Amino acid sequence: MSEPSKIWLSSPHMGGGELDFIHEAFEANWIAPLGPNVNGFESDIKSYLKTDKQVAALSSGTAAIHLALVQLGVTHGDEVICQSFTFCGSINPIIYQGAKPILVDSEPESWNICPQALDEAIEDRIKLGKKPKAIIVVHLYGMPYQVEAVQDIAQKYNIPIIEDAAEALGSTYKNQACGTFGEFGALSFNGNKIITTSGGGALVCNSNDAKSKTVFYATQARDNAPHYEHTHIGFNYRMSNIVAGIGRGQMKVLDKHIGLRRKMHLFYKDIFKGVDAIEVFEEKADAVFSNHWLSAINVKAEANFTREDLRLFLLEDNIESRPLWKPMHMQPVFKDLPFYGGQTAEDLFERGLCLPSGSNLTEEEKNRISTKINEFLKQYGLI
């Protein structure tokens, strides 16, 4: 008997219009990392975010965070606070700059940075003579962090925020787009995101000057001269016109994709309705709107099974699911970094699971998922 087809956690979902922009680029020979698609994609994002801020299209979300740190003057010996419960792309750019990450725990409501632990971390670093140069905060799985509480702390100590909204395009807090709250905001268009350019990202900047500097650094910091002149260290981070064409096509289906992801969240809410052992991750306040990039659950400590039991059960039918992000302070490469907080991030990693969430899941695939989960719940006497 052949193995059933794989159901992916989050696969690319093309809208069909992407090729029109790509063909235009080929016909005009705009293949380099500049051109009308790049300009148009930046304009499309800016319009979608409903912001006066400026957008620079880049090669990845990690590149966006890196260039934000560069412009904030983060350098060797500095310290930058970062949420521990995140993907390594949030923290690696701090290391690129020779700076030291200071890791902070999450709070259980949004799974994002804990304001109380953040305040304690800043106070302690200042006492040690190292006031942090920046704070990197993440909207994890598309869920907005506690915006006002974090902003208040950042203002209290006059520390700029870099907003990692890589997973949160389309999410809002009080109708304001995630990615527009910080000094800088990073977006990602990786293959598994709400929309994709195959690989790519963008930096949301507070001013035209900040965007100009971003583009300057992203194109090898080439000075204005007839020859190649360099007074700064630059990077090869600019998005190509071809990739941006994919993005322009994807922007046309962004709202549709968000609607479908949010329906997947409701799909799991329905499956786990009445199952006390499982909590479905969702908004806890009316002001919060999540794109539900990934639907996630938390298996309660008192359950008679683990998230690994469920993950392996789904895998029997070739259904991909994945543990929540392993916190950075638990990673071998970062285990010796300072960490402030308690057990929230660790507990979430131990008990949390991301479930298939793609906007392109078919009814047949959803039936396979629900059938398999119900089999599991029956096995453990939960339904």
Task: Throw out a few tags for this protein.
eight-stranded mixed sheet, 383 residues, 12 helices, single chain, 2 domains, Aspartate Aminotransferase, domain 2, four-stranded antiparallel sheet, alpha/beta
Description:
About 35% of the residues lie in helices and about 15% in strands. The protein has about 375 residues and is of the alpha/beta class. It folds into 2 domains: about 20-250, Aspartate Aminotransferase, domain 2 (3-Layer(aba) Sandwich); about 255-320 and about 355-380, Aspartate Aminotransferase, domain 1 (Alpha-Beta Complex), CATH 3.90.1150. Helix 4 (about 90-95) links the parallel strand 2 (about 80-85) and strand 3 (about 100-105). Helix 2 packs parallel to helix 8. The protein is globular, with a radius of gyration of 21 Å.
Briefly, what is this?
The protein has helices at residues 18-28, 36-49, 61-71, 92-96, 115-127, 147-157, 208-218, 241-251, 254-271, 307-315, 344-351, 363-379, and strands spanning 54-58, 79-83, 100-104, 134-138, 161-164, 172-173, 176-177, 184-188, 201-205, 278-280, 288-289, 295-299, 322-323, 339-340, 352-355. By secondary structure, it is α/β, with parallel strands linked by helices. Strand 4, helix 6 (147-157) and strand 5 (161-164) form a beta-alpha-beta unit.
Class inferred from helices and paired strands: alpha/beta
**Overall CATH architecture of the largest domain:** 3-Layer(aba) Sandwich
Output the helix-strand order. Answer: HHEHEHEHEHEEEEEHHHEEEHEEHEH
Strand order of the main beta sheet, please? 1-9-8-5-4-2-3-14
Instruction: Quickly name the level 1 CATH class of the largest domain.
Output: Alpha Beta
